[in-house]
Amino acid sequence: MTTHFVVDTATLTGRSLKHITRSPDTIITTAFMPIAIMLLFVYVLGGAIETGSETGRAYIDYMLPGILLITVAMGISYTGYRLFTDLRSGIFDRFHSMPISRSSALWAHVLTSLVANVISVAIVVGVALLMGFRTGASLLDWLAVAGILAVFVLALTWVAVIAGLSASSIEGATVFSYPLIFLPFISSAFVPTESMPGPVRWFAEHQPVTPIVNTLRDLFAQQPVGDDIWVALAWCVGILVGAYLTAIVIYRRTIT
Prior knowledge:
The chain is an all-alpha fold. Helices cover 75% and strands 0% of the residues.
């Protein structure tokens, strides 16, 4: 049974990835906006922003973790779009008329999202390096960054799956990502939370993006991550489990 599921998922993931290779503009579009925001903040606004960073530390080093989360938030909107399109085209009904694992079609979209976001994040990091981003992070630190981002991608992807399964229009399948894209702006991604007024500061310090950003920033800077990493993982895993269970319930009701 497990082997059957793995083979079916791999086959359908290959099909989904072919759509991305034939339409690379989706990845380019996903990476374009975060890069534009990065250019704006570094070259236009960065000189006026006080981050409290140590002398000689470039602003791009401070804000890159937030840009990476924005990249992911933009990328998962395409997962909702692709899933909604497949549902409305009847392709899921065709898959389920074949002797394949029922959940493999859903997991194929999730794994495709993971691959697409890895590519988008790599593009953004490459541009950041050209803009002056520097890090002394070790291989272990980079692996920790990659692991946190991977869990974050999976958590938001299952949120996108919920939107794709329950939406009644293409707009509904993608608009959910807008608040997720905006969330890093009310966090420690671009300025320290200490500079914010009381209620805004409280929200910034108690929403999921801030501990994730702080953890990634400390890993890049080779600083102790403290409790932030556990708070970040708790948020990511909690969202992942909750969104996964909700998506499965909706999927079973939708695909009969």
